Amino acid sequence: DQDRIFNFAAGPATLPESVILKAQSELYNYHGSGMSIMEMSHRGKEFDAVIKRAESDLRLLLAVPDDYAVLFLQGGATTQFAAVPLNLCEPDDAADYIVTGSWGDKAFKEAQKFCKPNLIWSGKSDKYTKIPPFEGLEQNPNAKYLHICANETIHGVEFKNYPTPSNRDAILVADMSSNFCSKPVDVSKFGVIYAGAQKNVGPSGVTIVIVRKDLIGNAQPITPVMLDYKIHADSASLYNTPPCFTIYICGLVFEDLLEQGGLVEVEKKNAKKAGILYDAIDGSDGFYVCPVEKSVRSLMNVPFTLQKTDLEKKFIEEAAKEGMIQLKGHRSVGGVRASIYNAMPLAGVEKLVAFMKDFQARHL
Ligand code: PMP
């Protein structure tokens, strides 16, 4: 549609056009109920069907094993920075954190309030452009879990495979906010996966937590009910009023991803989009530079700078005039960042690459 622009925002982010149109068509009178989904009881039969279908479609997409609970929670991924240690640790328990960017760092700092986290690796001195080799990691033998941020949204660094906790009883925990449902994941490798919806699977307002059932039920006594996985698992995410409309949109996105052929197909499309963008950067004779080590470059968030940094503002402004918006890098790192989640069409990336070549030709 010509009215829709290409939105490269990091989140909230672009949604599939088909999902927006379907939501629009169902908005005024949802399935003949005489009201919109926003106005309904979360305990009514319509919403019950919506949340059940969203959960079962997500289980299909990620092949979530039966011994895992899928929770639709509130508070953003930021709330999970606290919920994870509160649910998995006693106050004196150790937990290991690998910090590959600002989000992992925030998770580590929040955990300090609720357990005894160890920073076992940090990419800070390399400006968060790397993922460590797993063999050399010095994990704490008593750690309850090993925490990673699977994709660092600001720095564009993505785990391509996953470390195994060295302690047999420890579990791997991943913040997948910015690459959730962008590719197949072996859920059984993780104890907890959490993700805010607002990048790949919906609007802001819901955080999806996938947690192995045997880990549920040991929350610290001080844990607020809203952060206790057991409360939400026992009531199928309906302990209190959930973000109904957001869950409904997530359900439409899951349907769309299944219709596309599931996450194997989705990953192929994402790899293609990221490939042409990184090729354009690497083939620019240094006009554009991506600082991230090639083997761990994110398929979702592509940060780059212009060698002539004084041109960055102009680049971002001119791109916006041509219908490509939100290309400014995060305020903490500057430069340019193109977030190209599932719903960014190939045409959007092709248009950006054409613009980059043209801009370069005009500023040599
Ligand atoms: N983790 C990652 C990887 C993120 O990208 C973000 C948001 N940009 C967060 C956590 C925080 O998420 P929220 O705003 O949903 O709390």
Automatic annotation (TrEMBL):
Gene3D superfamilies: Aspartate Aminotransferase, domain 1 (3.90.1150.10), Type I PLP-dependent aspartate aminotransferase-like (Major domain) (3.40.640.10)
Cofactor field: pyridoxal 5'-phosphate
A single MF term (Gene Ontology): pyridoxal phosphate binding
Catalytic class of the enzyme: transferase
Pathway: Amino-acid biosynthesis; L-serine biosynthesis; L-serine from 3-phospho-D-glycerate: step 2/3
Transferase listed as a keyword: yes
Pfam families, per database record: Aminotran_5 (PF00266)
Residues annotated as domain Aminotransferase class V: 5-352
Gene Ontology annotations for the cellular component aspect, listed alphabetically: chloroplast stroma
Reaction catalysis annotation: O-phospho-L-serine + 2-oxoglutarate = 3-phosphooxypyruvate + L-glutamate; 4-(phosphooxy)-L-threonine + 2-oxoglutarate = (R)-3-hydroxy-2-oxo-4-phosphooxybutanoate + L-glutamate
UniProt KW keywords: Amino-acid biosynthesis, Aminotransferase, Pyridoxal phosphate, Serine biosynthesis, Transferase
EC number(s) on file: 2.6.1.52
GO BP, sorted A to Z: L-serine biosynthetic process
Family: Belongs to the class-V pyridoxal-phosphate-dependent aminotransferase family. SerC subfamily.
Record protein name field: Phosphoserine aminotransferase
